[in-house]
Fold this protein.
Amino acid sequence: VANRNIKLSGLHGRYVIENRSFFDSRQTADCLIANPPYLPAPDENIRMPLLYAGDDGCLMTNALLAMNYDRALLMISSYSNPLRCLQHAADIGYAVSGFMLAPLTFGIYSSEPKVRKQIGMLRETNRAFYSEDMYLLAGVLFDKHQSTNLSTPLRKLLTAL
């Protein structure tokens, strides 16, 4: 369906859809754009296993950052150890050159008892930040060649709840 829509839109020279692991891709690019899975859970036996992202929720985000793109636009949740994600990015040479925040309510997958319990355990160790009914989702632009770094204000905002 996606390839057909690309062809019908006249964009077949600009977009390629491949059905395989992103991590096995042979394609090169300057920028990575992703909304990676960020559900923390003790294991992947959850309602939507494809949203599982390790016990603290930043497994996939950190794996994508480690692919070493010049720029990466990624979504980061305030309940998925955002400070670890930001520290990992800094450790491998990324600066935060921009971000946007949106408040979201917990949905069906993040409210699953097993997931919500894990989020609560992360909160007890200052690795998850949220209010009773809301968390923050940040779209973060990481850049390897940026002199301005907005990671400090982003950290303050993500941990404000």
In short: The chain has a mean pLDDT of 93. The longest strand covers residues 95-105.
